[in-house]
Specification:
3-stranded mixed beta sheet, 5 strands, mainly alpha, Clc chloride channel, 588 residues, CBS-domain, two-stranded antiparallel ribbon
Length: 588
């Protein structure tokens, strides 16, 4: 097996780069498309199996327990079998690109599928899209790694896997490519887009073959009417503010739940809370796509489900209020699912909340009598509006919704609402729900080449250790001896414990270095001075560059986390590494 792999690797590397990537992208597309099909079937199988033996109303109360059971199974599987954190798949992919040379662990090829299918199949209120993106990216990354390919090629194949995963689960090849370009934020050349295209089309073809050619969301949309133009702008503004709420509330609430250290206490709280929410608002059960599809077909009763509030729906205003509440608490249901040990993403909930918000806006407009708008159209366009805001990916939102609904007749309102939503949230929030945390950590790659290069450079890789140290209790004569064996003009003064006490510059002692009478009278500790600033071994390069700019130094000492001296980092070496890395980024 190993010899076969080595032979294939050698043969592939002998091919021109474009041809090698073409063959590999086909394989990644087939694999990620198959993974998407397996995940969808697994989710549906679990859901069918659980529903098949629930016949009486009393037994339906098991729906309160199912999500908690699924979360517990997933929690135990992750804790004792996988032994790794696999939640927040898209964010993990971004971190792999920025901090781990695009390497993703092998178990991610299957672990996200196993856990998310149980989580969602048992009714967890999350989406399957982030886990399948993690799976697809892992397929591409590990294929490249197994063949011994470079970081550049590994990153491209990782992107092919992510694009194929989206294309496969939604049967939307164009959306798969745009997702990779907008959300994973590669600085990628036109030649590298070809493998993404091949992978996406291949994965979508696999999905069509096994899942049929029907659109993901059947609907009863109508033709776009110019008279509704203003109301789509209004929908965009509303989606922008709801996106802001969705993003900030999710991140803050997840952080709050994470403070519960004991995983079983966290599971118990999350399971009980989610069960109560689902009991009160049945559309929160599972992905929520059944309720969303009902709204897209103007089937309000189907969207509501068996709600205990159904008796209140005689008042026409109660329906939009009911769905608005669902939209607002979906973030809590999603957070409880993930905090309780479930594995799923925010992609699906974003689409569901967007569709609900679109319906609510359309229904409110109609109830006021100001104008009559098609509610199904607004639900569909709302999906794109919220996606454009939460993920800050308007192009992906526009074409994904068009592809999964066959709704190219609504391309104009999709563009209007998505752009307005994106512009609205960008006024208040720079980063998407996927990138906000890692941007705050300084680990985010962006389309800005300078920022991307600084993110990829590691301070620990640029430390220069050929500076000769001297202890503070030595004398000038000892320092002269050190100078005679050094090619540097900076001398770190380090005590016996390895702590930096200061530095001595050659220019500062030039006036006394030839005065032999002082060789045994002047102590090194009297000659040292404080460095202009200090750098730490694991410090972000963006922070290091700010210190160079502020101090106007050309060399700064580097310490480890305990404060011990490690060496120096120089501006010239950073610039050299920057130029090399910039060439690599530009060619990707």
């Amino acid at each position: 097996m190993r010899k076969s792999t080595e032979y294939i690797s050698k043969w592939l590397k002998s091919l021109p780069e474009s041809r090698m990537l073409f063959f590999l992208s086909i394989f990644v597309g087939l694999s990620s498309g198959a993974a998407a099909v397996i995940l969808k079937h697994a989710i549906h199988y679990f859901a069918w199996f659980l529903k098949s033996w629930l016949n009486t109303p009393a037994e339906s109360f098991m729906y309160l327990l199912y999500p908690g059971i699924g979360m517990l199974l997933s929690l135990l599987f992750v804790k004792y079998v996988i032994k790794d954190n696999i939640s927040h798949g898209v964010t993990k992919v971004l971190l792999a690109i920025a901090k781990n040379d695009s390497k993703i662990k092998k178990h991610n090829i299957w672990s996200s599928i196993a856990t998310s299918s149980v989580t969602i199949g048992f009714g967890g209120s999350v989406g399957a899209e982030a886990p399948i993106v993690y799976t697809g990216a892992a397929i591409g990354s590990n294929l490249a790694r197994g063949l011994g390919l470079s970081y550049k090629h590994m990153t491209i194949l990782l992107g092919c896997g992510a694009a194929g995963a989206i294309a496969g689960i939604f049967k939307a090849p164009l959306a798969g490519i745009l997702f990779t370009l907008e959300i994973l934020m590669f600085n990628i050349s036109m030649t590298s887009i070809i493998p993404l295209l091949v992978s996406s089309v291949t994965a979508a073809s696999v999905s069509y073959f096994f899942l049929g050619d029907a659109v993901v969301f059947t609907n009863s949309i109508e033709q776009f009417k110019v008279g509704n133009f203003t109301y789509y702008i209004l929908l965009g503004v509303v989606c922008g503010f709801i996106s802001l709420y969705f993003t900030r509330t999710t991140l803050k609430f997840e952080d709050k739940l994470a403070r519960i250290v004991n995983p079983y206490k966290r599971w118990l709280l999350s399971a009980l809370s989610l069960g109560i929410l689902i009991f009160l608002f049945p559309p929160l059960y599972g992905e929520g796509y059944e309720s969303l599809t009902a709204l897209l077909n103007n089937d309000i009763n189907g969207a509501v489900g068996t709600s205990i509030f159904s008796g209140l729906f005689a008042n026409p205003w109660s329906i939009p209020i009911f769905f608005l509440i669902i939209a607002l608490i979906k973030v809590f249901a999603m957070s409880f699912t993930n905090a309780g040990g479930g594995v799923g993403g925010t992609f699906g909930p974003t689409l569901v909340v967007g569709g609900i918000i679109g319906f609510v806006v359309g229904r409110v407009i109609n109830l006021t009598g100001i104008h009559i708008v098609p509610e199904a159209n607004f639900a569909l366009v709302g999906m794109a509006g919220l996606m454009a805001g939460v993920m800050q990916a308007p192009l992906t939102a526009i074409f994904l919704i068009a592809e999964i609904s066959g709704g190219y007749v609504l391309l104009m309102p999709l563009i209007i609402t998505s752009v307005v939503s994106f512009a609205t949230i960008r006024t208040f929030e720079t980063y998407s729900i996927y990138t906000k945390r890692i941007a705050n950590q300084g680990d985010l790659l962006t389309h800005d080449s300078d920022q991307a290069v600084l993110t990829l450079l590691k301070t620990s890789d640029l430390i220069e250790s050929d500076f000769v140290c001297i202890e503070p209790d030595k004398h000038l004569g000892d320092l002269i001896e050190v100078i005679s064996h050094s090619k540097r003009n900076i001398f770190p003064v380090v005590d016996k414990s390895g702590k930096l006490q200061g530095i001595i510059l050659l220019d500062d002692i030039r006036h006394i270095m030839f005065d032999k009478e002082k060789y045994h009278t002047i102590q090194v500790s009297t000659l040292l001075k404080e460095p202009l600033d200090l750098v730490y071994e694991e410090e972000k390069m963006s922070s290091v560059m700010k210190k160079f700019e502020k101090s106007e130094a050309w060399n700064l000492p580097v310490l480890d986390s305990t404060g011990k001296y490690k060496g120096f980092v120089s501006k010239s070496k950073i610039f050299s590494a920057y130029r090399v890395q910039l060439q690599q980024v530009s060619h990707e």
